[in-house]
């Protein structure tokens, strides 16, 4: 089995940073009224700027596949071009269409060469699953390199026109025309962008990182759905998919908007996260003392102290000086967040040979968690 190294890292964040006062202008006002939930959500998540693939005139500037292609192109130069990539593996929560696959569309924009592609589905963990597929391919000797990416373009799912039909319908039936908090919650949380890494079977480049292992854990066998899109959640927790709902109801229910069951999220995301963290520590016989940089993907700073407290309660607290976060100025880019976090850490110049880096990426969709452990070469 071959060793696998991250040899290049890149990101692509569209347009200029959007601050909290510009958000509603970019995404649009629903029902002609400013959101009452926005300031509450922003006060809790403490995100100050994020990125949208929307220009000053409200026009879309990039789709998801274009964001991803731009990040992958940023990995390349005259010594390693897009035509040298053997495997393309791309994860996202927000593909541009149901079919073709996301990686297939990215490949179409790259216009580089015939090669293997992979499109893991899911939410935030899809970016990590994209990384693991490339890692395993190289480790098994199937390929010598792989370009792996995580990306999101959720702004298009959060624009006001996505919700207008539902608001109009609620008015018709004389119901309160205020969106449920579970729908509006994510509107003020998410950001657009893409991150990518090049994996190789040799420690090339100035800052190679050896991937020691990647592991994942799912709690779907015991947990109902928490975050979803393209479905309606019933009172019993069951999801009714869009394909079983009459087409005339899709707009009235904002069926394709992302939604979050905030009750389930708050009660479970941290406890399951630390439970899976303990499992991965046990599996590899490591603990907090074996980590120099801890990169947790958290959707909101609201969960930061809670995560630390849950670690302490379960006897595996991570000292604050080892935490590395960039949520405040980058925003929550879902599947891309861990890639962009790593890019920023490497660019900081803080890393030294032998340092150990631990990724923790949760996915609230149905409570999944992915971990990776890296060594600075």
Summarize the helices and strands and which ones pair or pack:
Layout: E1 5-12, E2 18-19, H1 23-27, H2 38-45, E3 49-50, H3 64-73, E4 87-92, H4 102-110, E5 116-118, H5 125-139, E6 145-152, H6 155-158, H7 161-172, H8 181-187, E7 193-200, E8 209-218, E9 227-228, E10 231-233, E11 239-241, E12 259-260, H9 262-284, E13 293-296, H10 302-313, H11 327-330, H12 337-347, E14 356-363, E15 368-376
Helix pairs in contact: 3-4, 9-10
How would you describe what is shown here?
Residues 283-359 form the Beta-ketoacyl-[acyl-carrier-protein] synthase III C-terminal domain. InterPro entries: ACP_syn_III_C, Ketoacyl_synth_N, Thiolase-like. This is 3-oxoacyl-[acyl-carrier-protein] synthase-3. GO terms for molecular function: acyltransferase activity. The protein is α+β, with helices and mostly antiparallel strands and 377 residues long. The protein has two domains: 5-211, Peroxisomal Thiolase, Chain A, domain 1, CATH 3.40.47; 213-227 and 258-376, Thiolase/Chalcone synthase (Peroxisomal Thiolase, Chain A, domain 1), CATH 3.40.47.10. It has twelve helices and 15 strands. Strands 5-4-6-7-1-8-15-14-13 form a nine-stranded mixed beta sheet, with helices on both faces. Helix 9 (262-284) crosses helix 10. The longest helix is centred in the C-terminal third of the chain and has 23 residues, at 262-284.
Strand order of the largest sheet: 5-4-6-7-1-8-15-14-13
Task: Note the total helix count.
Answer: 12
Order of helices and strands: EEHHEHEHEHEHHHEEEEEEHEHHHEE
Overall average residue pLDDT: 92
Going by helix content, strand content and strand pairing, the class is alpha+beta
Domain Beta-ketoacyl synthase-like N-terminal: 120-201
Keywords: Acyltransferase, Transferase
GO molecular function: acyltransferase activity
InterPro entries: ACP_syn_III_C, Ketoacyl_synth_N, Thiolase-like
